[in-house]
Amino acid sequence: MDIEISNPIRISLDVVELDEHVPSLKFSITIQVKKFSYSSEINSQLWIECQCFDAFIDSMRKGDTAVLKDMNDFFELRVNSDQGWLEWSCAREDLEGNVTSAQGKEKLTDQSKCTLYEAFSNYPKWW
Hints:
By secondary structure, this protein is of the alpha+beta class. It is about 20% helix and about 50% strand. The strands form two sheets. It has a four-stranded antiparallel beta sheet with strand order 1-2-3-4. Strands 5-6-7-8 form a four-stranded antiparallel beta sheet. Helix 1 runs antiparallel to helix 2. The two termini are about 20 Å apart.
């Protein structure tokens, strides 16, 4: 795994492609939520610009609200440090215009905030 988070939910991002022309990373993403009598798993691939990745890490470091979005606005990961929430959403549209989406909101502890920050900031950058 390139980036893996296990708390408060399981999120993994694996790089599958790089684009140097528009500095960006194509990730294969998996989000797994297992709660009481509920479970959900999302698998998708998406492009994230390197500058958005850097801004996300910088905002987390400063304690600001950090937002990681893909280039098509189908995925968003939001870390709201002030309120202590991790919010995520993922959607896909097929060729006929049908849309499937999922989203969630999880309470963050100070430890899980640090774990999130470390997981992203320790990613080896090529840009």
